[in-house]
């Protein structure tokens, strides 16, 4: 994106790339979308991609790749041990993050598995700005607990706070004082905090967290999966960083972190995962887990072609005109929905546009999964696939009691450089129509409920005949149109 001024009309985000390979999309009639949703058990994870028009489920592994990434993939060195591709990626990670040691893994949660197995013990407490689903599951599996320490602003749906992902420094200090240093293996900061709407932390906040960590001798761990958005927001919103380059901001963030890990399905726009550190002891502790769970140390379960693409993707992340496309498209979508009265998370974050289901369908009780129901309804009336980020994404407690989520969001993810502005306009149009017809949306109940990460595979059904009524209203309003 470039800050290009339009002479007529309002400025809109302008793409600084052109499309050279395309994939045909299907837009099914509403009746067929309803059938597909029924078959998927009202769970957008279970839809077939051929039935989806705009796949806004996630940005994971579905960002557009550049011509340079594709070209690099042809040069991959396919050897089990000592691959030149590994060296290339290792060198790029060292150049960008300044970390000497690199451990490859097949994706982000594999890094979390290794880190949790090495550092989390029964009774461990892990403070963080906010949890991510897979992060929490690995920590809990190893007997630890997650303590989220954010400022009140983090959970305010509508705010003008530029850095809702900040760690609450006073709470961090209190937590350490109350529980003692020995119980805390690391403090985790998640860039572009996923579950509260892709909200960033500030560089100053990270400096402050590091100061506290240094005082107590605690390791600072960075989840850099959504770093590219966070970098853009620091550059854009943090006055004191205006004159820093993206590379300089990245380097300072990296210098403040003892261990960095990321899902390369997001950062680097390919598919894989990585852990890096300059601490040899820490590296040695984690190393054997790579060979045990992932693969040999020079590929860690990744295809060497993907590793080539990650090396180029990381370099491209240093280009502001590349990393600002996602946040600027998201800001456009958020602002257009706001104009039409649709409740969305503000300020616009990275990752995607987050619709506030708690308000959109405030007539649906939380134990009937308002965000899940809204995600299903959005698909039925548009073919746009979003993701539930609410109570369905939580896990019941040991007694089977439903844990109600702090937020009920539908995430409409914006995979980077994938959609055109007219497609985004289409999504806005349909969501706005749905908002005017929101009273037709009803609740959901489980018919098949897995005990772990139930949102991936669980099957649900509607609590009334609302889905049919919604599809009929769509047909009445749109006539023959899809
Ligand atoms: N950390 C963060 C902040 C993430 O967003 C994700 C994945 C992971 C770790 C795990 O990485 O998927 O490569 O194993 N987020 C995806 C999403 C699943 O759709 O938001 P992974």
Describe this structure in words.
The protein is of the alpha/beta class. The chain folds into 2 domains: 30-59 and 323-478, Alpha-Beta Complex (Aspartate Aminotransferase, domain 1), CATH 3.90.1150; 67-321, Type I PLP-dependent aspartate aminotransferase-like (Major domain) (Aspartate Aminotransferase, domain 2). Helices cover 41% and strands 12% of the residues. The strands form 5 sheets. It has a 5-stranded mixed beta sheet, sandwiched between helices. A 3-stranded antiparallel beta sheet has the order 9-12-11. Strands 1-10 form a two-stranded parallel ribbon. β3, α5 and β4 (145-148) form a beta-alpha-beta unit. The longest helix has 16 residues, at 421-436. The relative contact order is 0.16. The model has no long low-confidence stretch (mean pLDDT 96). Ligand F0G is lined by residues 58, 60, 107-109, 132, 134-135, 190, 194, 223, 225-226, 263, 265, 273. It holds the Pfam family Beta_elim_lyase. GO terms for molecular function: tryptophanase activity.
Structure in a nutshell:
This protein is of the alpha/beta class and 482 residues long.
List keywords for this structure.
three-stranded antiparallel sheet; Aspartate Aminotransferase, domain 1; binds ligand F0G; 18 helices; globular; single chain; 14 strands; 12% strand; Aspartate Aminotransferase, domain 2; 482 residues; alpha/beta
Strand order of the largest sheet: 2-8-7-6-5
CATH architecture of the largest domain: 3-Layer(aba) Sandwich
The percentage of residues in β strands lies in 5-15%
Tally of separate domains: 2
CATH class of the largest domain: Alpha Beta
Radius of gyration: 22 Å
The unreliable regions are none
Look at the structure and give the mean pLDDT: 96
CATH topology of the largest domain: Aspartate Aminotransferase, domain 2
The CATH H-level homologous superfamily of the largest domain: Type I PLP-dependent aspartate aminotransferase-like (Major domain)
EC number: 4.1.99.1
Domain Aromatic amino acid beta-eliminating lyase/threonine aldolase: 55-424
Keywords: Lyase, Pyridoxal phosphate
Organism: Bacillus benzoevorans
């Amino acid at each position: 994106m470039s800050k290009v001024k339009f002479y007529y009309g309002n400025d809109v985000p302008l793409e600084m790339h052109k499309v050279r390979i395309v994939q045909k999309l299907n837009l099914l009639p509403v009746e067929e979308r309803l059938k597909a949703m029924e078959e998927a058990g009202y769970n957008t994870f279970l839809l077939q991609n051929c039935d989806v028009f705009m796949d806004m489920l996630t940005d994971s592994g579905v960002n557009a790749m550049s011509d340079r990434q594709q070209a690099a993939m042809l040069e991959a060195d396919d050897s089990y041990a000592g691959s030149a591709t590994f060296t290339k990626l290792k060198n790029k990670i060292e150049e960008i993050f300044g970390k000497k040691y690199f451990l490859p893994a097949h994706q982000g949660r594999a890094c979390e598995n290794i880190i949790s197995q090495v550092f989390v013990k029964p009774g461990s407490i892990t403070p963080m700005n906010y949890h991510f689903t897979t992060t929490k599951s690995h920590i809990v599996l190893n007997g630890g607990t997650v303590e989220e320490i954010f400022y009140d602003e983090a959970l305010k749906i509508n705010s003008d706070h530029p850095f809702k992902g900040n760690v609450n420094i006073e709470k961090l200090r209190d937590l350490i004082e109350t529980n003692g240093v020995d119980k805390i293996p690391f403090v985790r900061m998640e860039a572009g905090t996923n579950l509260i709407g892709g909200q960033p932390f500030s560089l100053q906040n990270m400096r402050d967290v590091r100061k506290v960590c240094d005082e107590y001798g605690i390791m600072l761990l960075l989840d850099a999966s959504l770093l590219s958005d966070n970098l853009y927001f620091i550059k854009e919103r943090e006055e004191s960083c205006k004159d820093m380059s993206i590379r300089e901001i990245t380097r300072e963030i990296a210098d403040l972190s003892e261990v960095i890990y990321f899902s390369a399905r997001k950062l680097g726009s390919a598919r894989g995962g990585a852990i890096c550190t300059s601490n040899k002891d820490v590296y040695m502790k984690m190393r054997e887990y790579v060979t045990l769970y992932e693969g040999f140390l020079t590929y860690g379960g990744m295809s060497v072609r993907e590793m080539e693409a990650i090396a180029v993707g990381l370099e491209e992340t240093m280009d502001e005109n590349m990393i600002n496309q996602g946040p600027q498209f998201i800001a456009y979508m958020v602002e257009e929905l706001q104009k039409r009265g649709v409740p969305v998370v503000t300020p616009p974050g990275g990752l995607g546009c987050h619709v506030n289901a708690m308000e959109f369908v405030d007539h649906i009780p939380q134990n009937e999964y308002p965000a899940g129901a809204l995600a299903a309804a959005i698909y039925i009336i548009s073919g746009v696939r979003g993701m539930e980020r609410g109570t369905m994404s939580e896990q019941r407690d040991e007694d089977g009691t439903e844990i109600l989520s702090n937020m009920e969001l539908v995430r409409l993810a914006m995979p980077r450089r994938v959609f055109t502005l007219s497609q985004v306009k289409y999504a806005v149009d349909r969501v706005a129509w749905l908002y005017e017809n929101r009273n037709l949306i009803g609740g959901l109940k489980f018919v098949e409920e897995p005990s772990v990460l139930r949102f991936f595979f669980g099957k649900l059904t509607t609590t009334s005949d609302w889905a049919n009524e919604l599809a009929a209203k769509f047909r009445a309003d749109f006539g023959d149109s899809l």
